[in-house]
Amino acid sequence: MFSLAVSSARYQWRNLLGSAVALACGIGLLSATLLVIVSAQPHPPTQYADADIVVASEVLGETYNSTPVRRPWDESAEGSMVARLGRVDGVVSVIPSSVFPAQLVEGDRVLTPTDRDDLLGHNISSSALGGNRLIAGSPPVGAGQIVAPESSGLGVGDSTALVTVAGRTDVIVAGLAQGRSVYVDDATARTLSGGATTIGVILDEGVDTDSVRAEFAAIVGASGDVLTGDDLVAIESSADRGARNIGSQLLGAMGLLAATITVFIVATTFAFTVTQRRRELGLLRAVGATPGQVRRMLLAEAVVIGAVSSVVGSVLGCALAPMLGGWMRDAGMLPAGWELSMTVIPVLASTATGLGVAVTGVWFASRRATRVQPMESLREAQAERSPMTRVRWIAGGAGVVGAFGFAALGATSSSGGSTASFAVAAVMSAIIGATALGPVYLSRLIRVFVWGSSPTAELVRAESSHGVRRVSSVLSPILVLAGFAVMLTGLIDTMDKAFGETASAAVPSELVVSPGEGSPALPLDVVDTVQSYGGSVIAPVATMLVYGDRAMDVWGIDTVALSSMGLTTDEGSVDDLAPGTVVLDVDAASRLGAGVGATVRTVFPDGEEEPLEVVAVVSGGPAFSYVDTETALAHDPVAMTPLLYVDGVEQAALTDALAGTGVRVETPAQYESAGNAEDARLLRLFELALVGLSLGFAALAVANTMLMATSDRRPAFTLLQRIGATRRQILGVVAVEAAVVAVIGAVLGAALAWPALAGVAAGLADDLGTPVSLEVRWSAVVGVGAVSLVIGLVSAVVPAMRAMRPALTR
Predict the structure, then answer these.
(1) Residue 83: which domain range?
(2) N or C terminus: fewer CB in 10 A for the chain?
(3) Are residues 270 and 226 in the same domain?
């Protein structure tokens, strides 16, 4: 049976080529995404590449992306810990690592762009722990010198400005180092960091690391962690974790979409192949083949195709992975230090998945093949009988119900992430339903689009009724392309506009002074300048509080400023904010299960624990919680000012006053537009990748189906020519049919996205408490229609021209 399957696959290679290519492409993309994901798993930071052991302080809680927040050692505790660790036999050096926000700027230009999660400032002694070696010049001596990263474009001896939470300071570049870090002397670093949370240790050669680690563990006790080897991933930076989370979402979506569409194409192709091979399968039954043997033959064909395509796809994935990962790293969707590591498991998993996809795609088609009777081998007519099977009715009905069900769930969802997930599920269900029910409505729609009594119109209508399964197979990938393209673009535009308008309306001032691009916060000298310039200024400080085991953003702000921010007070009164109290955002109150009058256990960044009484619950604000300014600064001396709300000052005048500082003076609308620029950039990259992926697979599927269908229509072309039809007339029939199906697919696909987008708008309106208008990017609808038309015409006309060559030479 296997040898027969191999022979059959070789004979049917033209019909099976499209499935093989689609499967190879799908497995190639899956293999590439798996390799990138595996390579992007947490790695020990390069900052500690030469450290044999790292001692990390006690964990207080975790941030939104699971980064541990650690209790910093004060100067006395740090000194004591360093001395005790240094007395252990075999220890060469013990080096605390002080990290703080820092940037180098020239006028308004940031030489070392970063964000609040990516802290570039380090003490110079920590460079001995690895990663960023000094490549020119000398270490800094005193507060007026720095070691700049080579990537900054500066040279030894150059003057520049160092921006920290303490303000802008003119410095001299004493040396250059690898990487992106900015190094200052140890004494300056301590004043800017608020205390070290890690201490690196270098041992003598030949010293048993495990025994030293055991001694360190006895010294540290429960006040910290002793880390070696792969355990160092516990001190990975928040910036790297955040980039990995973003990349994982895109890679997961790409892998899922590739796998879904690949199964879709393979299943559709084999179902169509079974219809084409009805006479062949009937002949096998006539010579004694049992239904089980026919099924096993088809499944064996799938194994042959799946094995070859999966191996080719896995090799393709190995070649694609470095390009995919490099693009994502450069786009900020993977850690800056990401490098591809070739491992066997992702390749083997992709190959096995390819086999599974091929067999799964053929399984249902093989069940249909077993119903072919021996007398089918004597039939000349190829008209389809009963294209609507019971399975199609069930799948179609389930798809329609699922589409509206998921759209309804999206409308009642309480978060943007789940709303988007329900939208994707709704579109996929709608596409499945529309594809399964295609034979019911497709020929009727074609009659609506193709009217008149011309020979071409008559032939197109007759062909659509005669080969409704073929036409439906061509329609399905266009539905996938149009449905997902319109849904993704509409989803992004609707969410972008809704969040932008809501955030802009929540800004409680005429102007916003915010850090320039690549800056994490405003330095104190800028804050002083704005406050001295006049007008009303709200100047919060941003820090962090740990509630239970979760670290959340908190603003330090005075009562008057908080009252003037226009927040909606759900419970209590913000006027009661004072030392020992806290105002919670409604989301934070819900997570903590705390209302007005409750006492919540909190830990401040310096490690001090203090119970705070909840005096108000608010909504519509920019932070999770609010404490008074004095409390915030008392526990976090390096707390940063994220922005300033300013009233009563002319924008142009304030802009002139802050010229050369790199900050932005904007209206609420301008501020929100600039603030959302990074999110918008990432969303556009998501959109580009997923829509491009859908387009590629749709083009492949349409071309594959058209190639199969055209080879099956050669006898019809020959007959038309013999009764007087010209080559141009036949190609006209083929082109009109392809164009009509492409237009129907584009219009119907766009319509299928509508319930999902309506659910998104309703869900956002409920979540934001304000009406949200549904945004549809009509350029995307027109573009999808045009692309579908081109794909359909090229995929239909070119094979038809080739198919008619033998007939024309007779």
Answers:
(1) 46-236
(2) C
(3) no
